[in-house]
């Protein structure tokens, strides 16, 4: 049984990961400040006797010496708003959690001789000139725009990881996570999958921003979690960056049409202006994860959407 820390435990991926680890018999300590996390997620996890929750902010430097965090062997640092709706509403807080919050978690890992997994993002590639994107690609990011608070702070978080690994030999691995989804995604989260499914189930207009020709890939959260766990437990991942996402690419219009079809919805697909700096293409090259970790996603978009739609419909 490992003593595992998850920051952002009330959020989508953090909560799903925590439940998975608890079901496997691990002891999990979760930290969240409650900004975008959901209280019902903590209530669900609290049913497990090996779960301990601390309502705390990882940007408070006292977290390094918190008595409940000694000793820790693994740290999944997932804390950060991830939806543009939320990080644009709190840009300075987003920057701080991805920079100082990451530094403090790395310091905690260093003190405890623990391994840290940093949840970076496909957003660090910006509006990419290379397609698909491999880990060696440095990206094409605009520092002067509304998405920069997230993109650039995640990039600086990676720099902190590099410095702690290279200067102090801290065990660290970086996951550049591409779009993940499941019914665990909050219906009011503001991301494309939750928006499309809810709009379709309610018979509302399905809102596509731009001409709908921009592309994305979608990884069911079960597959995302499997990739993160392999990164944490595999020694070959130490000091390495991995793309974690599904390599099957879809246009946004194709996704909207698929959701409409699977929900048997009468909704109309409508088009609105594209937000500033919204990337035109996004698709991971997962060759490195396949070769070094033996990981690749197994759940197709159709299968994942069927599961998500079924659970969303039951909730409604």
From TrEMBL:
Requisite cofactors: NAD(+)
GO MF annotations, alphabetized: GDP-mannose 4,6-dehydratase activity
Domain NAD-dependent epimerase/dehydratase: residue ranges: 4-245
Listed InterPro entries: Epimerase_deHydtase, NAD(P)-bd_dom_sf, UXS-like
Pfam family, one: Epimerase
Protein EC: 4.2.1.47
Keyword Lyase found: yes
Enzyme class: lyase
Keyword NAD included in the entry's annotation: yes
Stated name of the protein: GDP-mannose 4,6-dehydratase
Keyword line: Decarboxylase, Lyase, NAD
């Amino acid at each position: 049984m490992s003593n595992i820390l998850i920051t952002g435990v009330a959020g989508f991926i953090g909560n799903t990961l925590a439940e998975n680890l608890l079901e496997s018999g691990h002891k999990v300590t979760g930290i969240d400040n409650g900004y975008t996390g959901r209280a019902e997620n903590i209530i669900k996890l609290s049913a497990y006797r090996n779960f301990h929750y601390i309502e705390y902010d990882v940007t408070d430097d006292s977290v390094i010496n918190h008595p409940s965090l000694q000793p820790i062997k693994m740290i999944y640092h997932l804390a950060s708003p991830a939806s543009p709706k939320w990080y644009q509403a709190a840009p300075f807080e987003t920057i701080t959690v991805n920079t100082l919050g990451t530094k403090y978690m790395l310091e905690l890992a260093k003190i405890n001789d623990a391994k840290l997994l940093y949840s970076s993002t496909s957003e660090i590639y910006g509006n990419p000139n290379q397609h698909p994107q491999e880990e060696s690609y440095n990206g094409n990011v605009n520092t002067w725009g509304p998405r920069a608070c997230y993109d650039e702070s995640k990039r600086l978080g990676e720099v902190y990881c590099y410095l702690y690994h290279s200067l102090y030999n801290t065990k660290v691995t970086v996951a550049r996570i591409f779009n993940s989804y499941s019914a665990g995604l909050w219906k009011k989260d503001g991301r494309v999958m939750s928006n499309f499914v809810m709009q379709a189930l309610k018979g509302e207009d399905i809102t596509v921003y731009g001409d709908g020709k921009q592309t994305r890939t979608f990884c069911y959260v079960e597959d995302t979690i499997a990739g993160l766990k392999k990164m944490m437990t595999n020694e070959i991942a130490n000091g390495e960056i991995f793309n974690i996402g599904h390599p099957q690419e879809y246009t946004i219009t194709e996704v909207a049409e698929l959701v409409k079809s699977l929900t048997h919805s009468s909704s109309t697909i409508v088009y609105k202006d594209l937000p500033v700096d919204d990337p035109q293409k996004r698709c991971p090259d997962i060759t490195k994860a396949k070769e070094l970790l033996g990981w690749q996603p197994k759940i197709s978009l159709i299968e994942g959407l069927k599961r998500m739609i079924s659970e969303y419909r039951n909730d409604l």
